[in-house]
Amino acid sequence: MLDKIYRSIQEKSLKERFLLVIGVLFFVFYLILGLLIIFMNNFPLDMKLGYRIAFGMLLITYGFIRLIRLINDNK
User: Model-level pTM?
Assistant: First the structure.
């Protein structure tokens, strides 16, 4: 399975590979940002814990939606 994914990436043009890497980086960015907002004790904005958890979960969900779209576009 990994061999198939590796061959698929090699067949892409330079532009498509660049956009794939950017897409994965933004998924990681949204995931880390959401986790930081949820678990950071001294968050710089004055938000209640419930709102911070909701906002963090929203960012994490958005990151996963972007990842799913990225995977479906590459098939």
Answer: 0.80
What token pair was written down for 51?
Answer: 């709102």
42 by DSSP, 3-state: which? coil
Phi, psi for residue 12 in degrees, rounded to 5: -75, 155
pLDDT tens sequence across 21-74: 899 999 999 999 999 999 988 878 788 889 999 999 999 999 999 999 988 886
Give residues with Cβ within 8 angstroms of 2, minimum separation 6. none
Spell 43-63 as b/e; 16+ CB within 10 A means b: eeeeeeeeebeebbeebbebb
Structural tokens at position 46 = 């004055």
Closest among 12, 18, 29, 23 to 75, alpha carbons compared: 12
